Each structure stands twice: as structure tokens, then as C-alpha cells.
Amino acid sequence: MAFSFRHAQTRQDFGDTVPLGLGGGFGYRLRAWPALPAEHRTAAIYSALSVMGERVVSVTWLARRTGFALPRAQEILDWLAQEGYAEQIPLAE
User: Fold this and answer.
1) Helices (H), the chain
2) In 3D, which of 29, 92, 16 has the Cα closest to residue 60?
3) Are 21 and 81 spatial neighbours (Cβ–Cβ below 8 Å)?
4) What dihedral angle (degrees, nearest 10) is formed by the CA atoms of 7, 41, 89, 6?
5) Cα dist from 9 to 5, 47, 53, whole Å
6) Tens of pLDDT along the chain (93 residues)?
7) pTM for this one?
């Protein structure tokens, strides 16, 4: 099932999503709503996934948004991409 959800918040509410074209690496955008493991069924994760359905985000953004350490946030994004729930987008240097 494809994920699509419109937000009532403004862009300011989301803080620092990926500054495209800066820094290289990868950005991630949600393509489909995942079946989350129990430990990730939190308001912070659901909120982050909702934003990911609207725009590209970075691992740093996910870590800040959820409170996870960077390696854990990267693990989650990698899992979402590997399972086909998120698109991994190369960013320009």
C-alpha cells in the first residue's frame, strides 16, 4: 500500500530536512508504510515516517527527530531502503 499523508504543519515545524546538494551522502524518502517491529512503534517514529512521506530526510535529521544515536538511525534507514519502504537518494557533494 502506497503511503501518502498531507501535513498540517508548515515547513518550519520540521526543522532541518536534507539541504539538497550539500554534503553528499544519501537522503531517504518513504515510498510505502512499513510494518514496524514493536520497539519502533512510537510517536516519534510515526511522526518521522510521516515527514519522510513528504520530503527527503537525512540520517542526522532522523536521529534528532527520534532521539536515536546516529548508527541506530542509519540502521533504521538502511532497513527501510532494503525492504523497499524508502527510496535512498544520492545527494550531490
Assistant:
1) 43-52, 59-66, 70-82
2) 16
3) no
4) -10
5) 12, 12, 14
6) 343 333 333 333 445 554 443 446 899 999 999 988 888 888 999 999 999 999 999 999 999 989 999 999 999 999 999 999 999 998 776
7) 0.72
